Amino acid sequence: MSLAVKGKLVKVLPLESGTSKAGKEWKKQGFVIDSGDQFNPEICFSLFGDDKIAMLRNFGPGQEIEVSFNVSSREFNGKYYHNLDAWRITGASASQGGNEQAAAPTYEDAPLPTEEDDLPF
To answer: Does residue 40 surpass a pLDDT of 70?
Structure first.
């Protein structure tokens, strides 16, 4: 399931990085938008990987944006933790047909792998 929300970019959180147990480097950056809702208006999203983090560079605090994201949950020691993983960020005016802000490049714009496989679909 994919969701989208519009709001004003409030804060860009510091870049986080590290190494996984498998020895792979990772990067993560969070950002907060204010949806303008009466209750719980601030929403924090996460971006994983250089290509997704680069989408955020096109926007600054105070700018109206639309964020497309997926919700995921995982269990650890009997408690559940949730993530809002952003996969597209556009200027709110661009999604309404305005030309004030060009749409940011998205993860979907990346070229598809050209490998042939034997999957039936």
So the answer is: yes
In a domain, 66, yes or no: yes
C-alpha distances (whole Å) from 80 to each of 30, 36, 41, 58 are 19, 27, 22, 33
Average pLDDT over residues 68-91: 94
| Element holding 33 (H helix, E strand) | strand 25-34
**Domain-located, residue 70:** yes
Domain tally for the chain? Answer: 1
User: What's the CA gap between 104 and 118, in Å, rounded?
Assistant: 34
**Would the pTM count as exceeding 0.85?**
no
Residue 90 sits in a domain of what CATH number? 2.40.50.140
Q: 46 with 84: CB under 8 angstroms? A: yes
Top pLDDT among 73 and 109 is at: 73
